[in-house]
Design brief:
Elements (H helix, E strand, L loop, with lengths): L3 E3 L1 H8 L4 E4 L2 H4 L6 H15 L3 E8 L2 E4 L3 H9 L4 E3 L4 H6 L4 E3 L1 H10 L4 E3 L10 H4 L4 H8 L3 E4 L8 H10 L4 E4 L18 E3 L2 H13 L6 E4 L10 H17 L7 H12 L3 H26 L2
Parallel strand pairs: 1-4, 2-3, 2-7, 5-6, 7-8, 8-11, 9-10, 9-11
Antiparallel strand pairs: 3-4, 3-6
Helix pairs in contact: 3-4, 3-13, 6-8, 10-13, 11-12
The structure holds pseudouridine-5'-monophosphate and manganese (II) ion (MN).
Amino acid sequence: MNLFTLSPDVAAAQAAGQPVVALESTIITHGMPYPQNVEVAKKVEATVRAEGAVPATIAVLDGVLHIGLTDAQLEALATAKDVMKVSRADMPVCMAAGRTGATTVAATMIAAHLAGIGVFATGGIGGVHQGAEESFDISADLLELAATPVTVVAAGAKAILDIPKTLEVLETNGVPVIAYGQDAFPAFWSADSGLPAPLRLDTAEEIAAAQKMRAKMGLPGGQLIGNPIPAEDEIPAETLAPIIAQANAEATAQGVSGKGVTPFLLGRILELTDGNSLTANIALVLNNARLASKIAAALVKTA
Ligand code: PSU
Ligand code: MN
C-alpha cells in the first residue's frame, strides 16, 4: 500500500522536475473561520502557481495522506465535522483509523519529506507558549524542525508565544533560524520582534544552498525562514498586546490545554479584533507563498 497519494498536478510537476511547494491544512480547519479559510487556501495556491511552482496542500482524508488537494477536497475538509488536528504524534493514528485530519507544521513537514518536497509555506509556526515554565507547552513544530529536512517559510512567531523562549529552544535543537532580507526576527503581524534573528540571508538561492549543504553534511533537520510581513500590512504590536494578553488569560482561566491552546488563542484574537487580524494574516501567508515558490525553484535548479 502507498503511504500517500499525489494529486495529478503534483505528480506531473515532480516527474518534470518542476518546483513544488507544500502547504499545511491546520491553518484552514483550526486557524481561520469558514468561508475565509477556503478562499485563503485557494488564493495561496493561486499565488504559488503565479510564481511558476505547483502547490501541494497536505491533509489526511478518510485515512489517506493526500499531497495536493482538489478544490472539492479543500472545500470538504474546510466544512467537515470532527477534523483532527494532526501533529507528529497523531498522524499514524489518524491514518490507520481512516479518519480525516488537518496537518500542523510538524505533520506537514513529515508528509512533504515523504513525498520529496523540500519547502513549505505557512503563516506562523507553533512555539513555546507564554507561561511554559508552568504549563510545559512547547509545540512539536520546534522539534520537527530539528528532525525533518524541510525549509519552512513563516512570518516568524505570533506574540501569543514567548518569542525569546521559542528562539532559545530552536537554538538548543540546532535549527537554523534565518531572517529573510533583514536582521530582526519577525513577529507575524509585525516585521520586527525586537529580537535579532541568529542568521540572515537575502536571496532564495542562498536559502536553497544552505539546505543542500545541510543535507550534504548529513545533518538532520530543516530550516526556519522568518519572512517579514510587508510594511503596508503590519499591525502595530501595541494594538495587539492587550488583546493577546486577554486571550492568554482566558485560556488559563478556562483551563484550555494541549492541542486546544493554539486554536483557542487564534479564534479569540480573531473575535477580539473583529476580524481585522485576518487581513494581515492573509497578506503574510501570500507573501510567504511567494518566497517559498522562489526557494522551490532554486532547489530544483541546482538539484
Ligand atoms: N500559529 C499560527 N497560526 C496557525 C498555527 C500556529 O500563527 O495556524 C497552527 C499551525 O498549524 C501550527 C500549529 O503547526 O498551529 C501549532 O499547534 P501547537 O501549538 O498545538 O503545536
Ligand atoms: Mn502545545
